[in-house]
Amino acid sequence: MVHSDVLYVVSELATDITVIVGDVKFYLHKFPLLSKSAHLQKLVTGEHNDEIYIPEIPGGSAAFEICAKFCYGMTVTLNAYNVVAARCAAEYLGMHETIEKGNLTYKIDVFLSSSIFRSWKDSIIVLQSTKALMPLSEELKLVSNCLESIAVKASADISKVDWSYTYNRKKLPEENGNNPNWNGVRNRSVPKDWWVEDLCELEIDVYKRVIVSIKNKGIVPNDVIGEALKAYAYRYLPGFSKGVLQCGDPLKYQSAVSTIVWLLPAEKGSVSSSFLSKLLKASIFLAFGDETKDELVRQMGQQLEEASVSDLLIRSPEGEAMTYDVNAVQKMVEVFLLQDHNSEIESLEEGNEIQEPRGPGILSDATKLMVAKLIDGYLAEVAKDPNLPSVKFIDLAEMVSGIARPSHDGLYRAIDMYLKEHPGIGKSDKKRICKLIDCKKLSADACIHAVQNERLPLRMVVQVLFFEQVRASASSGCSTPDLPKAIKDLTSGSHSSSRSATTNPEEDWDAVAMAEELKALKGELASLRLANGRGSSERNGDGKNGIDKAALSKMKGLLKSKKLFTKLWSSKGGGYGENSGSDSSESLGSANQEEAKSTPSRNRRHSVS
């Protein structure tokens, strides 16, 4: 046959039939065609039996040419790229065994089962080509056979896999030609996710069917499925790896993201929190419905301890005032904490008999601590948002306030940042925020920073001073003296002083101490300093104390500063609110003894950076 718009068979016999397929005319002979094609037999029996039209044949003129060559007994070359079109065309022409033994449909089916479906690469190529020939390729079970072949091979024992690198995998050092002793034989074991990149070339609808088939086998671990979905997202969605989708077809991206989310294994830890975060950011960018976003938030909440602060910094949808979606993070924390609650309920509901208590749920203390630290870091970042309402900040902080953590430095840093960025916060909110901090759990450096922090309420500053002095006394071996009434009032929240009957507790939180309280505070703290000084001199050089000596020295310097005490207690009309408008800042731990002895002016501002 000659390749042009007109094709004919080189033969001594004149052609007696013209077959028109699209724009191509085939000048052929009836006998070889009709002996193998039931469909052509029916067409030739019509009135115009010398010229027939078959514009709708699957695969077009190229596929018909293969069928025609087979009818003439010519050699036909089949491969993974043309076999689906040829099989569909043969089916359309009715080239079955009932017409002639060993007909084309039988021959192609043998070729598929003996060659194509035994090859990993060819099975993928054939699967890709079936999409253009739907629904016939589906009816002929070409799609299902490809899916089965791919799923079986992906689920096979890796010791039986003959694997080679795909084009975008990094070569081993010895394969780059740098190792003179390499003999060309790969000794490295096959990775369990060897197949994931080869499937990334598939369109999303086909890819979905492949992954479902692999999952249905129940052999491939969920973490490998998760790795496959991650590799596909990185390849299919430009910019996804950086958390920001590039411009493109939004409908195409929506289809891909929603399918990937639907395919995510339900088991905790199957995919990383970072990957879930990127999917959530993409779903918000593409304006998905709540169902997709809620599912991603739920999965992130189940493994919240594995997330980083950057994973939680999810931009709010367009039109919202807040920079970050704090509501989503609150839901994640709820899901995380509910795991403990639900496990306790399940343990109580098992059986009708009274069972022994099983302990506090499935979350370990270490896991809870990781989440508490994570939220502290997150709060420090979102605190910089001037549009973040105090109620959002407080509610999120309170959600993890019940988690015991040895240090409150992270929480202090977050709160200080919020007070710095929101100087107009109300007294009640400031009280509610600062009460979250346990002054006994602040490090020495944090204490030094706190006593110089003019954004903090007086009560908290006094608490910090007192507990640091107690810690210093304990480390030097001195017994802690009894607290004076004024310090007891300020550290315990009691309001039994002479003004307690008439003062509003909300105002008392912010108020400057009365003259008699200031006198008692000065006297008692002076006695504490003297006692600590004697203890220190008696134990000079003793290395058994558990506090950092440098930090302790800084605190002693602060306690000796008359200017500091004057700032805290000598004025009657001022409170911390007067000094909250200053703009200069100093990072935590930057104070030293010399700085403490020369306390900055009231206009200077100290904050945690």
From TrEMBL:
Give the region (Disordered) as residue ranges. Answer: 484-507, 572-609
All copies of the NPH3 domain together span 193-471
Q: Does the keyword Flavoprotein apply?
A: no
Checking SUPFAM superfamilies in the record gives: POZ domain
Protein biosynthesis as UniProt keyword: no
Extent of Low complexity compositional bias: 579-590
Pfam families in UniProt = BTB, NPH3
Q: Which InterPro entries match?
A: BTB/POZ_dom (IPR000210), NPH3/RPT2-like (IPR043454), NPH3_dom (IPR027356), SKP1/BTB/POZ_sf (IPR011333)
This protein's pathway: Protein modification; protein ubiquitination
Keyword line: Ubl conjugation pathway
User: Mind telling me which Gene3D superfamilies this protein's record contains?
Assistant: Potassium Channel Kv1.1, Chain A
- Which parts of the sequence belong to the BTB domain? 15-80
User: Hey, which family's this protein in?
Assistant: Belongs to the NPH3 family.
Protein name per the record = BTB/POZ domain-containing protein NPY2 isoform X1
Q: What is the lineage of its organism?
A: Eukaryota, Viridiplantae, Streptophyta, Embryophyta, Tracheophyta
Name of the encoding gene = LOC103494804
